[in-house]
Amino acid sequence: MIPAPPVPRALAPYVVARVAYDVDFGAPGVHRGLPGTSLTFVLPLDDPLRVSWGGRSDTLHSAWTSLAGLHAAPAAVHHDGLQRGIQLALTVAGARAVLGVPAAALAGSLTDVDEAVVPRPLRELSGRLHDAVTWEQRIAVVDRTLATLVASADGPGPRAEVGRALARLTRGARVGDVAEEVGYSRRRLSTLVRDECGVTPKEFQRVARFQMARGLLGRRPLAEVAARCGYSDQAHLSREWAALAGCSPTTWLREEFPFVQDRDPAAEAPSEHD
After folding, report:
1. N- or C-end of the chain: fewer Cβ atoms within 10 A?
2. pLDDT at position 263, please?
3. Where in this chain does the record put each HTH araC/xylS-type domain (predicted)?
4. What's the rounded mean pLDDT across residues 91-108?
C-alpha cells in the first residue's frame, strides 16, 4: 500500500477507504474481490482492470474504471503480475453523493463509468489520474473530484432511518430488533433497505458479518473469529466463507492475506453503516 493521508473529514460519510496500491504478485494470476458493505470503485493505472464474477468467465469486464455494487459472491480480478491504481470503498450514502444513483442501481453488477449513468467529473477522473505524475498528485486529484461531486450533489440522500438500520445491522443486531428501533415493521424495513441497497436486511447483515470476520482473519484463531463475529461455530464460519469467498478461510490466508493485509482498511471498518 502506498502511504497516503486519511480520507478528508468532509468525505468520510461517503468514502470508507481510499487505497493507493502498487502490488507485485510475482506472476500473472487471479485474486479474489470479496463481498462487503461498500461499493467498490477502482481506477487502475497501467492496464484496464479485468474483473469477472468468480468461476464465470462469461462475465469478464475490462475497462479503465471498475464499479462493483453490493454483492454476495466473490469477484475474480485478473492481473499480469503487477497492479497499480487507486481503489475507493463507497458507502450507501456515497453511491448517491458520488455516483448520483442509489446503491440498488448497481447491486450485483460489474460495470464502469462509461456504461453507468454517472456525473461528468467521474467520467473524466481516470484521464486526469493518468496525467498526474506522483502518488501525492493522484490522491489529490481523486479527493478534489470527490469533494466537488459531494458538494454539488442535489438529490436526496438515503432515508435517515435506513442509515440507522444499516449501522445497527453492520454491528450484528437482529433484523426484527432493528425494525422496532427505527419504527418500521420488518416488512417495511426490508422494502426500504432493498430499494436503497439492492439487498435485503438479512443479506446485508450476512455480508457485514463476513466483512467483520475478514478483518480479523489471520490476526485471531478461527474459533475466536467465529465467536466474535456471531457465527454458531468454526464450521459455520467456514461454510459462509466458502459461499461468499469461493474458498476456505485457510486457502484465502495462504493465497491472498499477504497482499491485502496492509491495503484493506475497509475490511474491518464500518461504513455509514459505518
Report:
1. N
2. 45
3. 159-255
4. 95
Domains of the chain: 9-152 (2.60.120), 160-267 (1.10.10.60)
Closest CA to 157 of 198, 113, 98: 98
Q: What are the beta bridge partners of residue 85?
A: 21, 44
* Residues ≥6 apart with Cβ < 8 Å to 49: 42, 62, 63, 64, 65, 66, 77, 85
Pairing of β 49-53 and β 39-44: unpaired
- pTM for the full model? 0.90
| Chain-centroid distance, C-alpha 4 | 19
- Mean residue pLDDT of the chain comes to 90
Closest CA to 250 of 220, 217, 211, 209: 217
Say if CB 212 and CB 118 are below 8 A apart: no
**Nearest of 98, 87, 55 to residue 263 by alpha carbon:** 87
Task: DSSP for 56-93, please give it.
Answer: -GGG-EEESSEEE-S-SS-EEEEESSEEEEEEEEE-HH
